Amino acid sequence: MRLLLATISHETNTFSPVPTPLARFCRDGTTLLSGQAAIDFYRGTGTCLGGYLAIAEGAGAEVVVPVAASAAPSGKVEGGAYETFCRAVTDAVAAGGFDGIMLDLHGAMVTDRFDDGEGELLRRIRAIDATTPISVAYDMHANVFDDMIRTATVVTGYHTYPHIDMAETARRAGAALLRAINGEIKPVSAWAAAPMLPHVMAQGTHQFPNKELQAMCAGWEASGRALAASLFVGFPHADIPMAGLSAVVVTDNDKADAQRMVNELLGFAWNARQDFTFKIEPLQGSVARAKRLGDAGPGPVVLLDHYDNCASGGTMDTTEVLAEILRQGLEDVVFFGIYDPAAVQQAIAAGIGAQLDMTIGAKLAMPLLPVASKPLNVSGRVRTISAGYFTARGGLAPGLRVFMGPTVVLDTGPVQIVLLSRHIEPTAADMLRTLGIEPGEKRFIAIKSRVHWRADLGRFAREIVECAGVGVCTSDYGQLQFHHVRRPIFPLDPAMAWNGPAN
Ligand SMILES: [Zn+2]
What we know:
The chain is of the alpha/beta class. Helices cover 27% and strands 20% of the residues. Helix 2 packs parallel to helix 6 and helix 3 packs parallel to helix 4 (117-128).
């Protein structure tokens, strides 16, 4: 058996000013991973490609990986980049000789030409090869368009947020695809969307209602009623027609039952729509509350600067939460982090131990937001300089070698500020330990993250305080001008009614 495996993964925040050129998809900034190098990099990791490789190699298949392109979330993908990695896949498909195609796609990729980057890729594959079975593993944040489902044989989605089941999701997709190739099953799919944009801060699977929705999916899979059942919460920071919540269910040749399960998922989600919203606490009050909690006992209080999460397209350089922490005098804080490559270079040039007065952050304008961040003046000593390499032992993708880029810790006394050269969401304790900081020993851990930090850093949190700063991942939908998303949609149109999908 010969299988084509590929990763093309990007979550696009159409409000983000962070550019998305080809280099962002390259591990070292210059070369896209492919072939044996991609196989060696991902084999055994907790990623989708790691899961696909386990299934394919376990079946004794010959594996071809034309491209493994994955980038941190940011603005629309540049056309040249998109064409480069799509062509890698379509050229391989055109060369032929595959029994199956296993794709690891995010599902919320927007390019400067296409609202559904994944749907366009699948259309191109099907224009070359109309019949070879295709499986797709999508992120739970996929914004689903019809072509993303119609063209595929099997579609699966994550059941966890934070996404700790990426490899498992791909194994489920790959295993079903192998059964389809062998003629053991005949997968059929049903899908539909609900008119709702769940807030990301209310999407975690540690809480109602997504916990219950994902349990429904997993239960149907475990019982065998569904080959794959997926509830996609969607990615709301994308001004495209199909942003938002949807469900996809694959059964063994029972379309009507697949549709029943889709309807049940969407009905449950719609009825719980108020629980998919998020209540915003003003920044001054939340930082003051964090300070009181910090004084109340041992163990870290986690402050989430969640409007500027780089893993949702944030610039990772807004300063408002850090400024408020400094202003209110919180002590024994690690702040991870501010993306500012020029400040990193300035600190490296000064060297370990140097005392510096610096202006950090707010270097990337956010023209699609009505509010702006301000540069922040800080004084501190250069405590750590790191090349930025580490291998994640916990968190989202155990075993994955991660490159943060050159990284510096500037110590102001009360606050240790991490200055970064690449956009990387603080999710794993190893990110801090590689900088000489033990997270469990800090009084406050302030991070630019929303939900994924729970995967590993979550175990250190005695208390959690959500801080509304400034950023393109804002939970205040009033700051976002939507022009293209389908209307009406909840909560942009809060009083709207909906009677379920038209089947
Ligand atoms: Zn996601």
